[in-house]
Write a structure and sequence with these properties.
Its EC number is 3.1.1.17. The protein is mainly β and about 280 residues long. It has a single domain, classed as Neuraminidase, CATH 2.120.10. It has no helices and 24 strands. The protein has a four-stranded antiparallel β-sheet with strand order 1-24-23-22, with no helix packed on it. Strands 2-3-4-5 form a four-stranded antiparallel β-sheet, with no helix packed on it.
Length: about 280
């Protein structure tokens, strides 16, 4: 495993690979920054935003959609501009969290309580956003995180970190999710599931917060197939990237001892699945 940064960041998250420009984007939620990493020259650039930025998805033209507490922003990283395209419906004390686009270009975006105290359980929600409008809201989540789609089986996989499991849903053509059941039970694993991505074989790669690892699991059987050790405790997100999409990029967050908040990369023996863009 190779460490690609020396940021000592606070809460690195939301990594996403742009295969057209061969750049990796990720955020530091609490430092209110978007980063752009170019592996070809190992350059790292940043852009500051006015509030917590919790999630990024790509558009067809290579620009970004970013989720801030007050709404969605269209971000042109090269020009360092951010223009609001959708107002938020979040109450005070709630922010957006992880999100990704489905095969139809709809953005699925979670929300969670900023203070994880006695009021946090079930205070979050999962939003389906289409054409800069909220289409559906699913409530009752605590920390909605990793998302992935198996298009061949019309399945949607989703993590609510507090439950220590990956759930599976049936997804209809118009974006409704039904038939929820547990796909992978991670209660016996070290750490709790956070961000997640799918490889080309349909397996899920799951960042384990507090667990010093990324695990690969088969959502059909629930079996853990592989574990990748990570030097930092709070492993927050992972995605496939590189020219052949056989590199696993991993973000971490700072722990109570001050360690973490970095970007890592690991060569793996499988390629990444398709990444969908907003508005496809």
């Amino acid at each position: 495993m190779e460490k690609m940064t020396d940021l000592h960041g606070r809460l690195l998250e939301g990594c996403i690979w742009d295969e057209c420009s061969e750049k990796l984007y990720f955020v530091d939620i609490e430092c209110r920054k978007i980063y752009c990493f170019r592996p070809d020259c190992e350059s790292l650039n940043q852009m500051e935003l006015p509030d917590y930025v919790s999630d990024l998805v790509l558009k067809k033209d290579g620009t970004l959609i970013a989720a801030l507490p007050d709404g969605l922003y269209h971000v042109d990283f090269d020009k360092r501009t951010a223009d609001k395209v959708m107002e938020s419906c979040l109450p005070d004390g709630i922010r957006y969290n992880d999100g990704k686009c489905d095969p139809k270009g709809r953005l699925w975006l979670g929300s969670m309580a900023m203070a994880q105290d006695e009021s946090a359980p079930h205070a979050g929600a999962l939003f389906c956003i289409e054409k800069d409008q909220i289409k559906t809201i699913y409530s009752g989540f605590t920390i909605p995180n990793g998302l992935a789609w198996d298009t061949k089986k019309a399945l949607f996989y989703h993590v609510d970190t507090a439950t220590d499991k990956v759930d599976r849903y049936r997804m209809t053509e118009d974006g409704q999710i039904t038939e929820k059941r547990t796909a992978i039970d991670l209660k016996k694993e070290k750490g709790s599931p956070d961000g997640m991505c799918m490889d080309s074989e349909g397996h899920l790669w799951i960042a384990m917060w507090g667990g010093y690892q990324v695990i690969c699991a088969d959502p059909t059987t629930g079996e853990v197939l592989e574990r990748i050790p990570v030097p930092d405790a709070n492993v927050s997100c992972c995605c496939f990237g590189g020219k052949s999409k056989a590199q696993l990029y991993i973000t971490t967050a700072r722990d109570d001892t001050g360690n973490g908040g970095e970007l890592y990369v690991e060569e793996v023996q499988v390629t990444g699945g398709e990444v969908y863009r907003y508005g496809d």
